[in-house]
């Protein structure tokens, strides 16, 4: 295997237990197994890849969902492997910590950009290259949210490769200087590697915790409450957007330098 495409075509099925032809043209990414389960139950389709690093499900409408795991390294891996399928659009349904007082648990965020604190993305482009979503994909997701008479936030997400930092006051001071609206571990990586692979990409993030204050740090109990109240809606918006994108959305074109 001498080319990236050859490797991806071999590795994507190996990582997911899913044949290339079984993936849809539109992909939802997540790092939560219950999103996969809910998707499969809704469309009465099989969950594939049990026991593999990544699990998938695909409905009859040409939409696949993939649980790629947690962190920037896994985010880069799935965006690299998806070149084997050349999806028409990829939407990340992730959770993030809210960093501003105006951002509350249960809010949705459509990131306008992401700050590359992940480290992984440096292997793809110099630090000066911004991590951006595909505007037309985000515009369509925005329409889906507004059609439901829901609000959402926009702003910059800080993506970090550091998992346990909520105790570190110096790091919190740094985050305040950045002015980011939220923090996660995948968005910037997904945007940069999607750009590198000419894949239309976006992210709809659910604010699941408020890590800048001690009482807002995520716990098992608080995460259970967020799941009960907001996950179904989060997934529903993602499914609706990716199902209708080809028929109703603006054409997404890729341009290279």
SSE blueprint:
Elements: H1 4-16, E1 26-30, H2 33-43, E2 55-58, E3 63-67, H3 72-81, E4 89-98, E5 108-117, H4 135-146, E6 153-160, H5 169-178, E7 182-184, H6 187-196, E8 201-209, H7 220-248
Parallel strand pairs: 1-3, 1-4, 4-8, 5-6, 6-7
Antiparallel strand pairs: 2-3, 4-7, 5-8
The rounded distance between the terminal residues' Cα atoms is 27 Å
**Separate helix tally:** 7
What is the arithmetic mean of pLDDT? 94
Strand content: 15-25%
Share of helix, binned: 25-40%
State the strand order across the main sheet.
Answer: 4-7-6-5-8
CA gyration radius, whole angstroms: 17 Å
Under CATH, the homologous superfamily reads Nucleoside phosphorylase domain
Uncertain spans, ≥5 residues at pLDDT below 50?
none
CATH topology: Rossmann fold
Q: Which CATH architecture would you pick?
A: 3-Layer(aba) Sandwich
Molecular shape: globular
Helix-and-strand structural type: alpha/beta
Tally of discrete structural domains:
1
Largest beta-sheet characterization: 5 strands, mixed, barrel
Can you count the beta strands?
Answer: 8
Order of helices and strands: HEHEEHEEHEHEHEH
């Amino acid at each position: 295997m001498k080319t990236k495409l050859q490797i991806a075509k071999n590795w994507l099925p190996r990582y997911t237990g899913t044949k290339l032809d079984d993936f849809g043209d539109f992909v939802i990414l997540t790092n939560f197994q219950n999103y996969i389960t809910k998707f499969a139950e809704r469309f009465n389709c099989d969950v594939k890849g049990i026991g593999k690093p990544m699990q998938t499900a695909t409905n009859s409408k040409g939409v696949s969902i993939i649980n790629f795991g947690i962190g920037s390294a896994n985010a880069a891996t799935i965006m690299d492997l998806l070149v084997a399928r050349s999806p028409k659009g990829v939407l990340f349904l992730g959770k993030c910590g809210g960093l501003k007082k105006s951002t509350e648990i249960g809010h949705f965020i459509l990131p306008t950009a992401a700050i590359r604190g992940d480290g992984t993305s440096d292997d793809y482009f110099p630090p000066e290259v911004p991590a951006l979503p595909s505007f037309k994909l985000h515009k369509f997701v925005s329409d889906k949210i507004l059609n439901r008479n829901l609000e959402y936030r926009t702003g910059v997400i800080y993506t970090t490769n550091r998992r346990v930092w909520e105790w570190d006051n110096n790091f919190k001071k740094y985050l305040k200087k950045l002015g980011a609206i939220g923090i996660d571990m995948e968005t910037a990586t997904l945007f940069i590697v999607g750009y590198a692979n000419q894949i239309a990409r976006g992210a709809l993030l659910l604010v699941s915790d408020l890590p800048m204050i001690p009482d807002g740090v995520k716990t098992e109990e608080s995460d259970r409450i967020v799941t009960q109240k907001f996950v179904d809606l989060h997934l529903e918006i993602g499914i609706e957007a990716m199902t209708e994108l080809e028929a109703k959305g603006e054409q997404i074109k890729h341009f290279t330098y």
